[in-house]
Design goal:
This protein is α+β, with helices and mostly antiparallel strands and 399 residues long. It has four domains: 137 residues, no CATH class; 32 residues, no CATH class; 138 residues, L,D-transpeptidase catalytic domain-like (Beta Barrel); 58 residues, no CATH class. Helices cover 40% and strands 18% of the residues. The strands form two sheets. Strands 2-3-4-13-11-10-5-14 form an eight-stranded mixed barrel. A four-stranded antiparallel beta sheet has the order 6-9-7-8. It is elongated. The protein starts with a helix and ends with a strand.
Length: 399
């Protein structure tokens, strides 16, 4: 008898699992949609338009994988098998399931599959997230027929030439590992493209290259130097608002204790050879002879080393500040020979630019005095120039 009851219990569980309603991916979006739609059927009407609309969505969902879209569950097994007899309550439940599938697929096509963010810092996504959620509901509300729905999904595909090439390679590829890599890369393109930025920078950590995009086209490409193994450049999506012409280099404390103070203790002239100044918290220059250097060998140094401006400055003549918690930025360098190397992971974490003046021209236009930069003047006062609008900068593991 006990075995019979146990068997019945498991049978009941199996039956309940078969008939259990699938969990919605975005219940808040679905509720917002029907609040705007008036709690009416959107998909489950009996007319030809509703039938064609359902068929159009199912077709889009079925081909999404072939188009390289990383996707979450879209309830496809429930959508393709419509019950022959539908009570009103069941019809509305199924209508909401269609809506949830459509909203999920629209967002995945628009911004890539919303997996856990792999970046170490992301200040860009949060700015647009609320607008994206408003967009996806309004977009579906405006696609009430099959033609409009298919056109809506088609409009979400990135138009960047590089993405087109990736899609062609994906369609012709059969190797599962290669397909996975291509799909991940296409998903990343979708994520960047969905912001619809007119201009942005992408830095590929896997190849140590920088790409400046303008209107979906690569305007400039260059080699960069990134962080070495023990001080890797972090991944991020952040904003840059300004550049500095003839910047100072303020030596970070970690570099000061590891690489500088021992040199200074051995020979005070090291400061002059490297055009270094000692400055206090207010920016005032301190006489280095007044500093008891050996007492700060292991810590407690109350000042900062600052390298004077010029082409021999470690930051060169051009620097772009990036708003991250990592104290890394894009800059020129006084060691230009490193760009011919294949392995260019040599910095303390910052991004050194192969063509800083070219990038400065592209970003600042006629506001840049190119002749002044090329003159390599010494001891110039740093000049901060703001971009016409904040510049998104993405540093990614692979692009």
């Amino acid at each position: 008898m006990r075995h019979y009851l146990v068997l019945c219990f498991f049978c009941l569980q199996m039956i309940q699992s078969v008939y259990a309603q699938p969990v919605l991916n975005h219940p808040v979006w679905v509720e917002r949609f029907y609040k705007a739609w008036g709690d009416r059927f959107f998909w489950m009407g009996s007319d030809v338009n509703a039938t064609e609309l359902r068929a159009a969505l199912i077709e889009v969902l079925q081909v999404s994988d072939r188009e390289g879209v990383l996707q979450k569950p879209y309830h496809l097994e429930h959508l393709v098998e419509l019950p022959s007899t539908k009570a009103s309550t069941d019809s509305m439940t199924l209508d909401r399931l269609f809506t949830d599938a459509a909203l999920s697929a629209l967002m995945d096509h628009r911004r890539g599959f919303n997996r856990k963010n792999p970046m170490e810092f992301d200040a860009v996504s949060s700015v647009t997230r609320k607008k994206e959620e408003e967009w996806v509901v309004n977009a579906l509300l405006g696609a009430g027929d099959a033609v409009s729905l298919i056109r809506l999904f088609g409009s979400l595909e990135p138009i960047m030439p590089t993405y087109r090439i990736l899609r062609q390679r994906y369609a012709a590829q059969a190797n599962p590992d290669t397909l996975r890599i291509l799909k991940e890369t296409m998903n990343l393109f979708r994520w960047i493209d969905h912001f619809r930025f007119d201009r942005f920078i992408v830095i590929d950590r896997s190849t140590a290259e920088l790409f400046l995009y303008e209107h979906d086209t690569v305007r400039m490409q260059m080699r960069v130097v990134l962080g070495k193994e023990e001080t890797p450049t972090p991944t991020f999506a952040a904003w840059a608002e300004s550049a500095i012409l003839y910047p100072y280099w303020y030596v970070p404390a970690s570099i000061f204790y590891k690489e500088c103070i021992g040199q200074i203790i051995r020979n005070r002239r090291w400061l002059d050879w490297n055009r270094m100044e000692v400055v206090d918290g207010a920016g005032g220059v301190i006489d280095p002879l007044s500093v008891n250097w050996p007492s700060y060998r292991k810590g407690g140094f109350p000042y900062t080393l600052r390298q004077r401006t010029g082409c021999d400055n470690s930051l060169g003549i051009f620097k772009i500040d990036i708003q991250t918690p990592f104290s890394v930025y894009l800059h020129d360098t006084n060691n230009r020979g490193v760009f011919v190397r294949k392995h260019r992971y040599l910095s303390h974490g910052c991004i050194r630019l192969e063509n800083p003046i070219g990038l400065a021209q592209a970003l600042l236009g006629d506001r840049l005095d190119v002749a002044r930069l090329r003159a390599c003047l010494k001891d110039q006062k740093p000049d901060r120039v703001f971009f016409s609008s904040p510049l998104p900068v993405f540093l990614l593991d692979e692009f």
